[in-house]
Specification:
This protein has 16 helices and no strands. By secondary structure, it is mostly helical. The chain has 2 domains: 34-116, no CATH class; 126-404, no CATH class. Helix 2 crosses helix 3 and helix 2 packs antiparallel against helix 7.
Length: 404
């Protein structure tokens, strides 16, 4: 019989299956009503996306409305009219319609994991349990804005040198294709013997002119190989660990991941989320896969009654402690250990986050300032090589003319 499927072999009623069926029926009814009213939109969203800035703008305005004592449903109705991103507009409209059918905001957000990260969904879920939406949205608003600023600075620190190098390589390729062949033809007509450096530059130019299809195929194969390698967990982990050891940039990678973890972890703890759930959610917020795995390991060890400091490999049982965790600094482990004695983890970590965040901003600024002269030297080295190539044959011609 149908009702027998809700009982296990010991005839204990399994309410989870029953609730799941009710939830499915409720969503089906909601979709049917939206379809009849013309609110259901079946447009393809394959090439549509929502940026972190769009999400922050939505949370920011939503927080202002809620803290102004505007009803949640009415606040969503206003936001639907103000949001410009069509994909985000449909999501907020779906939130508004779902509330009418007793489907919570967190449930709707869970259906769009690429738009709302785990921290945002978890905090909204906390509000639905504690009814502290205004406070939580204000915290989330500030957190999203800080994350956007940090990620922008980190990306700019990584992208800025690449842009300069790309422009330099583009300039060199342009010279190889359009300028070098003309100068080479002039030297050949004059019968000047080309030096070794000039012959190498001419060979590179001929390669760009005649074998450019091979170069394009090699680049395509290289990109496909990188994408294939990066699609496997083993190589993803290898790249994640490599970024934590990369010269100059290793500090940015480590410090940014620690800052993201501390901020999300403290917000969750302040929102009365359980410790294990806070660790699990924070592991989804950090971008680096090595840190995700490390936080999951810590969460699993804490689950079997091991302290966080011990999970960080901090051992205070001996006079000279040995700390071997490569991802978290030793002072961070000592702060956690102090909390385990005083029960003031959130306050302590907030101070650590403030110091780490400022250190990260200063390092990014100094690194960007330091990279500029290095890139300029590289650019001038390439340009200088080409200038020397152009001048060497003229020296040979001058020697020949002098002997005459």
């Amino acid at each position: 019989m149908f009702w027998n499927s809700f009982y296990d072999k010991y005839w204990n009623f399994n309410n989870q299956k029953f609730v799941a069926i009710l939830e499915k029926a409720r969503k089906a009814k909601r979709n049917k009503q939206m379809h009849k009213s013309g609110n259901m939109n079946f447009e393809i969203t394959l090439f549509e996306s929502v940026s972190k800035k769009d999400v922050w703008a939505f949370i920011n305005k939503f927080s202002i409305f809620v803290n102004s004592w505007i009803d949640v449903k009415w606040a969503l109705s206003i936001l639907v009219k103000q949001i410009k991103n069509p994909y985000m507009k449909r999501i907020v409209g779906e939130m508004k319609e779902n509330i009418n059918h007793w489907i919570s905001l967190s449930e709707t957000m869970n259906e769009y994991p690429k738009v709302f990260d785990s921290l945002t969904t978890a905090l909204v879920w906390v509000w639905e349990k504690t009814w502290q939406l205004g406070k939580i949205l204000a915290e989330l608003d500030q957190n999203l804005l800080e994350n956007i600023e940090i990620k922008w600075k980190v990306k700019w620190a990584m992208i800025y040198p690449m842009i300069l190098l790309w422009l330099t390589i583009t300039m060199v390729i342009f010279m190889m294709i359009f300028i070098v062949p003309r100068i080479t033809a002039a030297f050949e007509k004059a019968g000047t013997e080309l030096p070794a450096l000039t012959q190498f530059i001419v060979w590179v130019s001929n390669f760009f002119m005649n074998d450019y299809l091979k170069l394009i195929i090699w680049v395509i194969w290289f990109v496909l190989l990188i994408r294939l390698i990066n699609s496997t967990y083993v190589w993803k982990m290898w790249f994640a660990k490599m970024f934590t050891k990369m010269p100059i940039f290793w500090y940015v990678v480590k410090q940014s991941n620690i800052v993201f973890f501390i901020k999300s972890f403290t917000i969750l703890l302040d929102s009365w989320v359980l410790l294990l759930e806070s660790l699990k959610t924070s592991s989804k917020v950090v971008p680096n896969l090595a840190y995700k795995k490390e936080l999951i390991r810590i969460k699993n060890e804490v689950e079997v009654w091991l302290t966080i400091s011990k999970s960080l490999w901090l051992n205070l049982d001996y006079e000279s402690s040995v700390y071997l965790n490569p991802l978290f600094p030793e002072e961070f482990a000592y702060v956690v250990s102090t909390w385990e004695e005083t029960w003031s983890l959130s306050d302590s970590l907030k101070k650590v986050w403030y110091n780490y965040n400022n250190d990260l901003k200063r390092y990014i600024w100094n690194m960007s300032s330091m990279m500029e002269p290095i890139i300029i030297v590289i650019v001038w080295a390439l340009v200088g090589t080409i200038i020397i190539w152009v001048m060497l044959p003229f020296f040979e011609m001058w020697k020949i003319a002098k002997n005459l």
